[in-house]
């Protein structure tokens, strides 16, 4: 398994890096990252007609279109993870839900070891609104029954990419980013509602849990190639109204 960290990058580059990893790596790759400014990410096929651009622009939020499916997430005060599995790995042949379940179990173990009493929930199969964190989906991770990690997945003929938002401090501003969800009730929880520990410790705890499943992590050996490829892809994720 390869391990890679990038912090404080803009939204388009974060998405480009996830896709570039899928196109380059030859082994399972775990990445952790954060965002330069609060960024609204929309699922690959999510309708953007309902966006409240006046509110989004006034707040200084960025917008990106994810390569994965799912609903909108406002990335803010969180740790984001991504996992890339190439077609040569046995997990590549699992179903969408089987893959979700596997990754959720690893994350739960890592967070439990850090003292966070998170658990996998059965969740809902169908979304209720544009907002990802309104309710948990199947095999997602919850704290006190409230969704604390929102994940999304994409698959190509060469790799699976799953990435997700691990909420540290919860915000409800995402509902104001859409015209139709201003009065939406969103249950809110973040890991720091339970216990505050340094971000680096959370990263290390999760990394150790992934290493238990995938083997000892190595530093990503493709950084120069990754930089070139992500620069080629970044334009795909720059938001165009």
From TrEMBL:
Record-annotated BPL/LPL catalytic domain positions: 24-218
UniProt GO MF annotations: ligase activity
Keyword annotations from UniProtKB, A to Z: Ligase
Membrane-spanning segments: none
InterPro entries, alphabetized: aa-tRNA-synth_II/BPL/LPL, BPL_LPL_catalytic, Octanoyltrans_LipM/LipL
Keyword Ligase in annotation: yes
Superkingdom of the source species: Bacteria
Signal peptide range: none
Coiled-coil portions: none
Protein's UniProt name: Lipoate--protein ligase family protein
């Amino acid at each position: 398994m390869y391990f890679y960290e990038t912090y404080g990058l803009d939204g388009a580059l974060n998405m480009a890096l996830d896709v570039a990893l899928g196109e380059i790596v030859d082994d399972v790759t775990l990445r952790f990252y954060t965002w330069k400014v609060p960024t609204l990410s929309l699922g690959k096929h999510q309708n953007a007609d309902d966006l409240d651009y006046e509110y989004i622009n006034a707040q200084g939020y960025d917008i990106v279109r994810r390569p994965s499916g799912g609903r909108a997430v406002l990335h803010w005060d969180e740790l984001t993870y991504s996992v890339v599995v190439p077609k040569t790995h046995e997990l590549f042949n699992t179903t969408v839900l089987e893959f979700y379940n596997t990754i959720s179990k690893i994350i739960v173990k890592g967070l439990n070891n850090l003292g966070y009493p998170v658990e996998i929930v059965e969740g809902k199969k169908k979304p209720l609104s544009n907002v990802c964190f309104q309710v948990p989906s199947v095999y997602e991770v919850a704290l006190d029954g409230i969704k604390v990690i929102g994940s999304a997945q994409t698959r190509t003929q060469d790799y699976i990419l799953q990435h997700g938002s691990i909420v540290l401090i919860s915000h409800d501003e995402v509902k104001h980013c859409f015209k139709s969800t201003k009065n939406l009730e969103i249950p809110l929880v973040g890991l720091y509602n339970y216990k505050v520990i340094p971000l680096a410790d959370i990263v290390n705890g999760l990394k150790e849990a992934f290493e238990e499943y995938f083997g000892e992590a190595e530093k990503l050996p493709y950084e120069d190639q990754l930089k070139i490829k992500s620069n080629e892809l970044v334009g795909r994720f720059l938001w165009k109204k």
